[in-house]
Amino acid sequence: MSKANIIRIDSVDDERIAAYRDVRERDLVGRQGRFIAEGRVVLNVLFASSRFAAESVFLRENRLAGLEDLLERIDDDIPVYVASGDVMDGIAGFHMHRGILAIGRRTQEEDAAALLAKMPPAALVVALCGIANHDNMGAIFRNAAAFGADAVLFDQTCCDPLYRKAIRVSVGAALKVPFAKIENGTAMVEALESEGFDIVALSPAGRIDICAVKRGRRCALLLGAEGPGLPGDLLERLPSVRISMREDFDSLNVAAASAIALHRLWQAPE
Amino acid sequence: MSKANIIRIDSVDDERIAAYRDVRERDLVGRQGRFIAEGRVVLNVLFASSRFAAESVFLRENRLAGLEDLLERIDDDIPVYVASGDVMDGIAGFHMHRGILAIGRRTQEEDAAALLAKMPPAALVVALCGIANHDNMGAIFRNAAAFGADAVLFDQTCCDPLYRKAIRVSVGAALKVPFAKIENGTAMVEALESEGFDIVALSPAGRIDICAVKRGRRCALLLGAEGPGLPGDLLERLPSVRISMREDFDSLNVAAASAIALHRLWQAPE
User: Fold this and answer.
1) Cβ-nearest to B243 among A139, A255, A263
2) ipTM above 0.85, yes or no
């Protein structure tokens, strides 16, 4: 028997589910450390996390039967709202075909220096400048988790990894891999270097082929946005690395590039 | 001076631009070999292609000034419609922030056997089963082009690479890399084997690590959808290959997996 605290919602105007109203628009404005988690896999990650807490869960009634395992994990002080498909779609503002939502909240925020200070001796870190696209951010987190990255750092021009779509595309990895924001690329590089990280700066015009890179014991992969790429001053002072490809081809998507580079760097360091 | 045949459109009801009406919905129904190309890079690929032709171009008036190079390439028998932003958005049915569209059409359709028969001696082919997501299809084409794949084959359960979003995500690669549809995975494998291709079947539970694969002279990378993966009968009869990752991590996105595998297979064959 589930101990979950199930509350039936019959009206789109019910104030108890106000946090779920118009989730698409709500996602883009001030969220006070809160975020929307969608889908069974992501909710399981949320309930297993020590850095995030669930405030409430919102389920489509026809999904309840298949979610016993999830409901078992939900403490009874967390309301589990349940509504019909029509009421749920009316509240969310569009068709919620998965019908499994939660409001999560960050329980701790760490600065980059504190996060880096506790990295393991052979850490792999992903460092991002200018990744403003939610899909790319989510996909990079998914790849970071797949290849055992210990943290993700990002500058002020990156989007928040806790956007609904970034979390969804990451399949929950945005709630798994610890992250911290830092003001800009220069500060990020300095923080990494002061903790003994070798930095691999990925660029289409990089001087070293990724296949020839021997990673250092502590290694950071630095990625910039497609198009502008990494700031020139950073590329000049760091070893720049390229993924070789057909000469007449423009460039890879930054998430695809992260997959290739992280797969190469994941091997045990020298 | 551009020779382009520029035609001013002032009404959303103008029948000359009927093909652009409600492009999002139109994309999903019968398209009679036609497709929507978006953005400067994709239009340049379209105008350079021998397998596709443009039927018309549709530009937002404030984009005209920066597109002299593109307009130079457009024959004067192809109408170039120009409208204000409001008229264009009204026609397309949503905000067209790029403001650069064309209707393209396939001028030839090849079956898989004919396409494979003319592959070069050391060809690299991507073979897809069940890739129904437009973003993944577009991203796989982009990776295929980056790493010099000579063709893409796909089964009946894959989506059309000429969907608007697949072309856009591919950054035009869907119009560059030749492709053909074939009824199912078994027929695809037989067609590849009869042309002397070694097939690398990618699977999270693959027997060989991708890092240990020595590619054959003719090589095909076989990819299935996330979740279901490749059909069991194909995995049993083919050498299955995995991308090793953290043990507690579920799986990579199929486009990310294609990037890693194609980057590994792209090297000159033995």
Assistant:
1) A263
2) yes
